[in-house]
Each structure stands twice: as structure tokens, then as C-alpha cells.
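Q: My labmate handed me this sequence with no annotations at all. I'd like to see what the chain might look like in three dimensions before we decide whether it's worth expressing. Could you predict it?
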Amino acid sequence: MTRISTKTFLTAAALSVLTSSAFAQAAAPTPWELQSDMAYAYGKDGKTFAYKMGTNNAGTLLKGAKKVPKGTLFFIGQNGQLYMRSGPYLEGDGKFMFGAN
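A: Here is what I predict for the chain of 101 residues:
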């Protein structure tokens, strides 16, 4: 089992979405590097974890699982809570609606 600290995971995710250059231009979004043989968890205590998955119980894992809709945004609120938004988050020109001015 590989453990990723909440602070490290959230900092990387936030920086990939919210960083901007010295000229106040938004940086290009950075894709998450999720792997098909890994499971990622946001624990009850607010910590994040990464687990190496096996194949012998994949059917059990899929029971009750739901697909994440395309166009879903994940973010951490000021209260430290993980949120998701399925509504629009890009402006017509492709800029992030909630980024720096």
C-alpha cells in the first residue's frame, strides 16, 4: 500500500488547476496521472490514499460503484472538505471560470 499525504495530494491538485504565470495568464491544465491498477481514496479522516489493486476481487469492487461523469471538477473548499461539481467550470473561451483574474 502506498500512502500519499493529504497535503501533498491536494497541493498538487490545486496547483495544477489554480496556478498562473507571472503575467497573470492561466497555466495550461495538467492531467492527473491516474493508473488503471491503482485505487485512490479520500478517507473519513480527510486523508488521501493510493492502493495497488488486484484482479481477484474486481467484481466486488465494481458493485455499487458509479462512473464519474465527464466534465466533473474536484476541489477542496476553504474548510478542507473535498467537493465535486458537475456543472460548467470553463468559460466559452476555455478559461477556468474560478481562476485568478
